[in-house]
Design goal:
mainly alpha
Length: about 110
Amino acid sequence: MIDWARIDELRSEVGEDAFGEVLDLFLEEVDEVIARLPQTTDPETLAGELHFVRGSALNLGLRDFCGLCRDIEDRLAGGQPVELGPLVTCYAESKDCLLDRIQTGRNVA
């Protein structure tokens, strides 16, 4: 679900103090996009929103979430219908997993 090596790499790149700020900013921005996805009816706008969150998620190692974003972007590009429920669920699970490990230091998925 999460590429923990990427998390460690990012933490090393920005430093421990800045990592918390980067994480908070990421979660705030992605939470906002995820909240408005269900109301986004224009396929081009939806694809742009997904591209944005995929890039952010990639930087934080949210591997499964990135894959779902990419799959939905591909479906949109092909004019196919998309289902956002699994993406929203995956983000919530990924976020919970990430925060749990960061807050508790436990090894989780």
